[in-house]
Specification:
Length: 334
């Protein structure tokens, strides 16, 4: 009972105080005027669930909403037509990926996993879905990693001829491979999936799309591939690849989608524990080499994330899915 009460009546240290929650409708908060960073710029704040884009835009225009989320790139010009609202975009430090269950019979041969990756024209995906305003990282890393960043790494490349050759060499028999996803969970996710199916078909790989309601169903028995996103929680591999794919990760332990080589896990331990930056960087490069050779996932892109907001709100979105309402970073111009 205590855990249930804490979950539905949370108490934190931020600028908001929990008030009320109704599933599939809203989460309501009041301002914490005694917050250490100062009194928030508002008395109350409510997050409302509004699935329809047109309804979100109409609510912003009418004044019902002050900020809306998930604006596709082709709708940004619509937002910019209005005098008192504007679009604010940022490319997320979050990578959309395809997860391969390398322990599934259909995907045990890594040549087929490589073929699935090599068949993806990521530039075409970015141009079609994001108007070329985003990017694909060169490996599971970001420039913000600083001295840990491997600028010379090629990352995940497009090579359809090699993809077709690997399909033949793998002995793939043409059976349909399942790609599971939650429809409309990710912006442009359905569109990306449909394009991927055509790219894989061109390489001689038959993939079917299986739509489910939640991630429990995504990872249920029979999983072969699924769409996912990877957030870089820290600008360092210890807050990214190690959490998501390291020896203690769900990928290795809970879901068992990948049996990592011991060398990968040993390098992950060095990244997590060494105080020598050169040693850590070398271990990280070994991790990426193994990761890209084993191919437990392939990367698609980091998405462009666009909010639309009233111009009077002095607020800047972060490159992670986190909205900061502290008094020193969120102001209302009068």
């Amino acid at each position: 009972r205590a855990l249930r009460e804490v979950r539905w009546n949370p108490v934190g240290t931020g600028p908001l105080k929990f008030k009320e929650f109704k599933k599939d409708q809203f989460a309501a908060f009041t301002a914490h005027d005694g917050h250490f960073a100062g009194k928030p710029a508002f008395k109350s704040l409510t997050f409302r669930e509004v699935p329809e884009l047109a309804t979100r835009i109409a609510g912003l225009v009418s004044g019902e909403f002050d900020i809306i989320v998930d604006i596709p790139p082709d709708q940004i010009p619509v937002i910019q037509r209005y005098r008192d609202i504007e679009a604010r975009s940022v490319v997320l430090e979050n990578s959309h990926v395809v997860v391969f269950n390398s322990n599934a019979p259909a995907l045990k041969d890594k040549r087929l996993r490589h073929a699935l990756s090599l068949a993806i024209d990521r530039k075409k995906l970015r141009d079609a879905l994001w108007q070329g305003k985003n990017y694909t990282p060169n490996g599971h890393q970001l420039k913000s990693f600083g001295p840990m960043y491997d600028a010379a790494r090629k990352g995940y490349v497009y090579d359809p001829e090699r993809a077709r050759r690997l399909v033949r060499e793998s002995g793939y028999n043409g059976r349909a491979i399942s790609l599971r996803m939650i429809p409309n969970y990710y912006l442009n996710g359905m569109e990306a999936a449909q394009i991927l199916l055509e790219m894989w078909k061109a390489a001689g790989i038959n993939v079917k799309l299986d739509l489910v309601d939640n991630f429990k169903q995504v990872r249920a028995k029979g999983i072969e591939m699924h769409l996912w996103s990877n957030t870089y929680r820290l600008p360092d591999p210890s807050g990214a690849i190690n959490i998501l794919y390291g020896p203690g990760s769900g990928m290795q332990r809970s879901y068992k989608f990948w049996t990592a080589p011991e060398a990968f896990n040993a390098a992950a331990a060095i990244v997590d524990t060494s105080e020598d930056m050169q040693e850590r960087a070398g271990a990280f490069r070994r991790m990426l080499d193994i990761f890209e050779e084993e191919m437990p996932i392939t990367m698609l892109y980091n998405p462009l994330y666009t909010y639309a907001t009233k111009k009077r709100l002095d607020w800047k979105p972060y490159p992670i899915l986190y909205m900061d309402f502290r008094a020193d970073v969120f102001r209302i111009r009068r």
